[in-house]
Amino acid sequence: MFLNVAFTWGALGWTSGILLAYLLVAYFIRPRPDFDNIGWLGGLIDNPFRYSDDINRFLMFLMVVLLPGRFVSDSLVELAQDPRPVED
What we know:
By secondary structure, this protein is mostly helical. It is 56% helix and 0% strand. It has helices at 9-28, 52-80. The longest helix is centred in the C-terminal third of the chain and has 29 residues, at 52-80. It starts with 8 loop residues before the first helix and ends in an 8-residue tail after the last helix.
């Protein structure tokens, strides 16, 4: 059921580096697709006469893939910032 894999520091380093790279990409890259141009019938059918809807579909896919990383990285950045003092 579980994989019998020995722990190595190298694997931890690679995993941490890949996770850090994903969080940095998700924090700094924010794709903004044009939702009015994603194909026919709201994106269900590809428009064969335009290539821009293919680009917008890719941007929408990229946005969905990076969304969890954006939530985590934004939370970490806000946690690291100094809180403002509450004025009475």
